[in-house]
Amino acid sequence: MISKKMENMVANSSAIRAMFEEGNRLAKIYGAENVFDFSLGNPNVPAPEAVKKAIIDLLDEEDPVVLHGYTNSNAGYEDVRQAVAESLNGRFGTSFSANNITMTVGAAGGLNVILKALLNPEDEVVVFAPYFGEYRSYVNNYDGVIVEISPDTATFQPKLDEFEAKITPKTKAVIVNTPNNPTGVVYSEDTIKKMASIMENKQKEYGTDIYLISDEPYRELAYDGIEVPYLTKYYANTVVGYSYSKSLSLPGERIGYLVIPDEAADSENLISAANVATRILGFVNAPTLQQKVVKACLNEKTDISFYDKNRETLYNGLKELGFECIKPEGAFYLFVKSPVADEKQFCAAAKKYNILLVPGSSFGCPGYVRMAYCVAYETIVNSLPKFKELAAEYK
Amino acid sequence: MISKKMENMVANSSAIRAMFEEGNRLAKIYGAENVFDFSLGNPNVPAPEAVKKAIIDLLDEEDPVVLHGYTNSNAGYEDVRQAVAESLNGRFGTSFSANNITMTVGAAGGLNVILKALLNPEDEVVVFAPYFGEYRSYVNNYDGVIVEISPDTATFQPKLDEFEAKITPKTKAVIVNTPNNPTGVVYSEDTIKKMASIMENKQKEYGTDIYLISDEPYRELAYDGIEVPYLTKYYANTVVGYSYSKSLSLPGERIGYLVIPDEAADSENLISAANVATRILGFVNAPTLQQKVVKACLNEKTDISFYDKNRETLYNGLKELGFECIKPEGAFYLFVKSPVADEKQFCAAAKKYNILLVPGSSFGCPGYVRMAYCVAYETIVNSLPKFKELAAEYK
Lengths: 395, 395
Hints:
The structure is a homodimer.
Chain A: H1 4-30, E1 36-37, H2 49-61, H3 64-67, H4 78-92, E2 101-104, H5 106-118, E3 124-128, H6 134-141, E4 145-149, H7 160-166, E5 171-176, H8 189-206, E6 211-216, E7 238-243, E8 256-259, H9 267-280, H10 288-296, H11 305-320, E9 333-337, H12 343-351, E10 355-356, E11 358-359, E12 368-372, H13 377-392
């Protein structure tokens, strides 16, 4: 009785559910400390103490009718949007105002809003493998067509020649995610400039507008002092989707924003359409208390040294055991080459050692597995002897 | 550049926006106390004090990584869902478990989730005029077709003969909203039984399943001790969409739930599909802190005596002035007959007295206007002399 579009998705979802339940089952048998669950990207660093203080201050100081009420605009509180805009301007030299900011139910909500606003059926949306598998569902929600650029497994930077070749008159949007899930790669300024130039030329050639959607939940998770370029500065038709899920460790609270710059084509209509989409998709507005919380915590950051330590330990440990992977520059994922072509077989072998991995096929990149290292440090350390046993199977 | 589906919606949205800005403009000129804005259904009774206490207790007692983290299931925290189920069972004699509850981003989020789960393109969804205009957008999101039942303006109860005649083999769902926005009417048990019988017969006749979707944001706002029947008890294929927007005055926090009973056709798949839809529409999960808040406040209620006083004063005041309307039994709306057929003309006339009303056309029922009486009592009292002047124009 469920819709046809949902039938396959429910089947896939059951597989993920089964994996999750398998993790619980293993934890019950062997103890949670003996299960090495690298499958979930759920931050394990607590929110900064300032979040708690902000909530209590808001409860003490604000009128509850306003604090918990609908916002006047579906885009969110004007003061919050202005503060977000000014914070971006201070950091990146942009010139946004409240009008350019739509508060969203996380980045996932924001991506749905902008795709709803933009896509006509059959419009093409370009993604670079490996990519966050949910993009497929988000684009499918609005009857768009995903166009995959195959992975450059040497660097996991975008293949620009293939990108150029696959842009067509039906290309409405391009999604990038840097720092990247699942590889941890950050696109360099040089790469961004080349991508911008390709899109500008194609826009001229076809007389179209191609929107670059920058999905940035991992912006603040960059290591070794690396700079993550702010994309609106390189390409006019850029829309940014941000989330506080990782930067303030608030993933369950569903709070983020879209930036739609004045420079973007048809920006006034696009901003209106984003507000309408926020309403009619049922978000109505981003959760109000959390809007005010992020305003109070714009200068706060999650302590990423914890993730950094995990990154070093896991990367070095696996390299020493002979596994192939590139060192992530951001996010909290490691993308490891499977010792056998069928990485699902490798995942099954790992499970014998109570190690849970996600197959790269979920990210459009078979032959690899994703490890989320947002776990206790002990989990990393204790998993390495198990990985040693696992590696021995492939020698 | 925005999608074709959005173009009209953006135009309509600009009209609502213009009305809102007109209210602000009038308030600046005449003072907010001299503007009688009955246009918005934003609760003006504060959340119970217990909400604040619950938030502070949660911040003190719960691990922030869990409190603000993704929930294991997209349906929400297991303990919250179980508590909601048990609360319903205690009140209504149902037998739900956590498995039947999906926590949602308000009722608007819940309706989108269930419609995404159910609708194939061209599927028909029946609504009874006057109805909440957003249903049109929600159904349109999934390429469904709205089928309107014309209003019975004598009682604003559903026209059951027309309902029976308009059910077809393509009827996938029926949306009811009782207590009703915009009329305040509550459907009687007798009406519900007749509707259930009609749908059961049509299911047999066509060999289809017809889901009754009960949109219940106003369930707890019923006056004079009137009972609002719990619909799952009358018809097996019922899905309930609930929101704490009004019952706890938390509309901006976006917290509610869906009930999908085991008795509903294909319930196991439908529950899975609702979870997947929660994820892929970008909700991911209902805001986590608020999930825990509503668990702690299941026995709390907003003080509706305030709305009740407004209801009596406004209803009696307008009747004395010769306006025609039925007395609302629930919600916080009064649906008043326009003295002229074109109610938009009446709205324009009212605006001269700084009275803001919403045309019934927005609810599929021209010739009437909606007044939201969730306003300060003084606004009601001070508006009545203005209504007297307005009424005099039509004598």
